[in-house]
Specification:
This protein is mainly alpha-helical. 93% of the residues lie in helices and 0% in strands.
Length: 83
């Protein structure tokens, strides 16, 4: 029962995480527009790179955290089922 609750929680987390990142990727579009309007100025390119790096971290860090959490919880679920 605990495993099902964890799996449901993970699925709900993934749906929310995916929705948030789609919104984040949409928010990056104005950065590209500003970079084009600035004519590729170094500051505009730097802002674009930082914005994209932030969006990438929003995707990568939760994925790594979820993997680590799953690895930690799987042995606990197996031990709990054996008892």
């Amino acid at each position: 029962m605990i495993r099902r609750a964890i799996e449901l929680g993970a699925k709900l987390f993934f749906v929310g995480w995916a929705a948030r990142n789609v919104i984040g990727l949409i928010a990056v579009i104005p950065v590209f527009g500003a970079m084009i309007e600035a004519g590729g100025a170094p500051m505009a390119i730097w802002i674009a790179v930082c914005s994209i790096a932030g969006a990438a971290l929003n995707i990568i860090v939760p994925m790594l955290a979820l993997r680590k959490l799953r690895r930690m919880l799987e042995p606990a679920c197996i031990q709990g089922a054996a008892q």
